[in-house]
Amino acid sequence: MILPSKLPQIGTSIFTVMSQLAQQHGAINLSQGFPDFNCPPELTDLVSYYLKQGYNQYAPMAGVLKLREQISSKTEKMYGFSPNPDTEITITSGATEALYAALAAILRSGDEVIVLEPAYDSYVPAILLNGGKPVFVPLQVPSFKIDWQLVKAAITTRTRAILLNSPHNPSGAILSASDLTTLAELVGDTNIVIISDEVYEHMVFDSQPHLSLLTQPELAGRSFVISSFGKTYHATGWKVAYCVAPPTFTTEFRKVHQYLTFSTVTPIQYALADFLDNQEHYLTLPAFYQAKRDLFHHLLQDSGFTLKPSAGTYFQLVSYENITQESDLEFARRLTTEVGVAAIPISVFYHQQTDHGLLRFCFAKNEDTLQAAAEKLCRL
């Protein structure tokens, strides 16, 4: 029996491929974006407490109320916007689910979604599965800034949404105040919805602020804004995230969410609600990861790689033009199998596999891991 594919051009995620290759060859895995250190012990103690206290049945579909109330308070402190916990905040099983639910809630067959490339690999499949058409706009290389004239030119009467990501994976670029102003002007007289992937919101460096779309009322009123506890608390395996959106958006979002996962793991929600009182963790996270970025820069200063600016996330782009003329995919594979360090080739983030000769390393690792990886990379 042959099952016709709804995603005939989509294979296994590059993150799975490179992590498996790293495991097979005993390579240091700087490819997939996960820390090799644990989440705060106080947080795991809270999870254990709620597990043992019997908080192990279904959570409310929208999420534990106390957690939604804590998110509202945190959002107000960070961005000056206080979303209603009952009608504007939904807890999801990871940011990938939130992205999918947002797209499913708004798309009809033939609707267009503007996707800025390079783009995280879950965006396009979610658009296609919901009958939408991705319209690709390239970011400027090497800055990875948005060319708003290209975005404007890509807008048609079928444009339903623009998908943004800041801090940006894979480049580490961030939105500026002028970006938000231009975006607000661009969509002001339209019915275009913004889906804003802000999972790295607490990883912005060099004293720069994270400019969430929630900081501008005219954008907040037309946006699904998605955040991730997994990224913030070094617990990517928990797959707990949330979406902030206007009440009418949230109503449609929850209609999809309830039939995707219905609810998210209960004891972890209660633990996160308690731990959000600890503001120090997320307020000091930018300095924590900037120190790792700067250490990685220092360790690679004598290598053949050219490091590109990383204003946010826990990723570092490098050019290898002084080392080899191989394609980025070929070099990433050889780096894993022969050198012993796994990276992600940037071409996989483009629908036409555009190759700029760049690799992405994840520096969310212990110092010993970064040191060992750098020693191998500096031998090239």
TrEMBL record:
GO terms for cellular component: cytoplasm
Pfam families: Aminotran_1_2
InterPro entries, sorted: Aminotransferase_I/II_large (IPR004839), Kynurenine-oxoglutarate_AT (IPR051326), PyrdxlP-dep_Trfase (IPR015424), PyrdxlP-dep_Trfase_major (IPR015421), PyrdxlP-dep_Trfase_small (IPR015422)
Keywords: Aminotransferase, Pyridoxal phosphate, Transferase
GO molecular function: kynurenine-oxoglutarate transaminase activity; pyridoxal phosphate binding
Top-rank taxon, per record: Bacteria
Cofactor: pyridoxal 5'-phosphate
Domain Aminotransferase class I/classII large: 28-377
Family: Belongs to the class-I pyridoxal-phosphate-dependent aminotransferase family.
Name recorded for this polypeptide: Aminotransferase
Lineage of origin: Bacteria, Pseudomonadati, Bacteroidota, Cytophagia, Cytophagales
